[in-house]
Predict the 3D structure of the following.
Amino acid sequence: MELTSVSVKGVSPWNEDAIIRNEDLRLFGVIDGATSLVPYKGPGGESGGYLAAQLVARTCNEATAAEGNSDMLMSLLSRANTALRAAMVDAGISPEKKEAVWNACAALVRVQPKWIDFAQLGDCMLAVYYTDGSIRIVTNDQLAHVDDRTKAVWAQGVAEGLTTREALWEYSKPVIIAGREVANTLGGYGVINGDPAFGDYAEFGRISRTNVKSLLLFTDGLYIPKPPGEPDKDSTVEIASLVREMGLPRYIEWLTELEESDPDCTRFPRVKKSDDKTALWIDL
């Protein structure tokens, strides 16, 4: 088994993505932390998204075979979720105030001899490549409908004459706050944020290793920006195809160049010029 990983910081001061590489357990994954809408800085200036992503990754990277087998992935995520809640309480943050809590999306796999266990929350994604050249997107982007609403309002702000990312952020902020409120609800999406109900909204299961050649796990920083009215979340197969064609490093370079061509996010509606980008390619 060969692994290639890439993690590139976007415009935020902290890289809020993290990688899981527990080779003893053949456990791998990507984590995407999200900064709370209520400003927070840790003892070293860390953002809440950074702290959340690092906590989840550390929980998984330090796991041992004693953790169990059949439900290991969800057990580890549950432990991380509980630890995150405790960390936020210690920091004086109410876990019930959704705009203040730290969040983390995740996509994990554990490669077994005959199958692959997976677990996913939010908009971290898993693609599977088969020996016949076909590509299967295993996971569903649970945040797509929330992000589409934000981008529609962002595009409306552009249409009304707003020209800077800062102005567009303030214009769209009420919709962004509303999106945080539906975390871990039936009308929203699943995310690790200290809420004990997070497991009810996670997706997990097992796929056969039959004819599986490679795996790709990636955070939403790899999404290709799209014009108004064209959902970028529809491009997951396109992303998986381009990564296979270009290789991870070159794909990241190409995507970054595209983002740099639209620094104020007016041509391609999005809340950041360039998000953190993390991916893990696994050849089986």
Notes: The chain has a mean pLDDT of 94. The first helix runs from residue 48 to 61. The two ends are 5 Å apart (CA to CA).
